[in-house]
Amino acid sequence: MDKYFVIMHSERRDRSRLPRWMKMQMPKGETYSRVKNIVEKHGLHTICTSGNCPNIGECWNKGTATFMILGEICTRSCKFCGVKTGKPLPPDWDEPNGVAESVRLMKVKHCVITSVDRDDLDDGGAAFWVETIKKIKEVNPETTIETLIPDFDGQSEHIQKVIDAGPEVISHNLETTERLTPQIRTKAQYRRSLRVIEYIARSGITAKSGIMLGLGETEEEILQTMDDLIGVGCEVMTIGQYLAPSANHMPVKEYVTPEKFELYREIGLQKGFCFVESSPLVRSSYQAEKHVKSKVS
Q1: What are the beta bridge partners of residue 212?
Q2: Nearest-angstrom CA–CA distance, 60 and 180
Q3: Angle formed by the axes of helices 156-165 and 190-202, to 10°?
Q4: Residues pairing with 170 in the sheet
Q5: In what order do the strands lie in the sheet with 236-241?
Q6: Rg for the chain (alpha carbons), in Å?
């Protein structure tokens, strides 16, 4: 899942410590208010609200929303992630119906589906992913879909199930550079994640990935990560600022300036990405409705 969606609690408690470019405006707008009322009235679950995403107002006003499936307890305990870890409950097979109905009620034009890691399941939850995509398409035939998937332990047969379900975009986040991966990602492997992205790209579906900055990576490592992604066929890249969930998580080593983020955006486009979303508050679903167009750009 997009584990850096969470606007981290320790920073939220002391906003004075954040640089000026990390200060967020309150979301507003007619569409935002309508969607917010539906979410509250029907008890819907979106990562936009539970993760306190800084772009919630902008995305909802554009008709984009992100839903999290397979529960809220992850089987991994990555050092940068604020999601609960432990033993998850069994999958709720009525959840795909609920997500599809949520998309309908919210009049979502483009939805992003993410999930916790489910290493406790034989297929990592692939069959559940398929059912969710299927239900969304049945109830909302005009809505486009992006799936932000886990690595499924690199098992191609599980990834293929998601591909065959036909989402417009499939994303899998590297999260960070190769050197830092063992320090912050539990069980996940940098090269295995690259193979997952390559498998997606070879299928013909738009492949997407994202990383966080501020964990101690160097500029050289960032550029190498871009090259690695381009090398496996990734077309869309997101780059955002890491914020620590708590004092027990990896600390922020640096607040990267907006100017530096813009430089990385320009470099990424020069390297061959169709889209690069790069700024401090960018998260994986930011501007996601644009990324379905990469094949025809």
Answers
A1: 240
A2: 33
A3: 40
A4: 147, 207
A5: 64-69, 110-115, 144-148, 169-171, 206-213, 236-241, 275-278
A6: 18
- Are the beta carbons of 214 and 249 closer than 8 angstroms? no
Which residues constitute the domain of residue 274? 9-296
Summarised one tens digit per residue, pLDDT across range 190-241 is 999 999 999 999 999 999 999 999 999 999 999 999 999 999 999 999 999 9
Number of domains in the chain: 1
Could you tell me the CATH number of the domain that includes residue 236?
Answer: 3.80.30.20
Asked whether residue 4 is domain-assigned, the answer is: no
User: Residue 91 domain-assigned?
Assistant: yes
| Cα(255)–Cα(261) distance, integer angstroms | 11
Q: What is the pTM of this model?
A: 0.85
Model pLDDT, residue 266: 98
Backbone phi, then psi, for 71, in 5-degree steps?
Answer: 90, -170
157 occurs within a structural domain: yes
In a domain, 3, yes or no: no
| Structure token pair of residue 264 | 């990385």
Residue found by looking up tokens 């979303």 in the block: 277
Which ranges of the chain does DSSP label H, i.e. alpha helix?
Answer: 9-13, 30-42, 47-50, 56-61, 95-105, 126-139, 156-165, 181-184, 190-202, 219-231, 258-271, 288-291
3 state DSSP class of 244: coil
> pLDDT tens for residues 242-268?
988 777 788 899 999 999 999 999 999
The answer to whether residues 91 and 129 touch, using CB atoms and an 8 Å cutoff, is no
- Which token pair is 248? 């027990």
d(CA 208, CA 20): 29
- State which H helix or E strand residue 68 sits in: strand 64-69
